[in-house]
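>> received
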Amino acid sequence: MKLFVGNLSFQTVEEDLRELFGSFGDIDDIYVVEDRQTGRSRGFAFVSFADKDAAETAAKELDGTDFMGR
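>> returned
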């Protein structure tokens, strides 16, 4: 199951999200959307979990969480 993660700091990288979401279950993929010209994060990402229940738990528990100042 794929989760949309918005309102991220522009300094957020894949490893930051792996650390945040990894405790909820196995992660298949993390894609931080980047600006094509600058290579910087555009402030959102997608996190894909192997297990639907893990994704739902992560979404529920992390919704509204302050992460890296945002």
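>> The longest strand covers residues 41-49.
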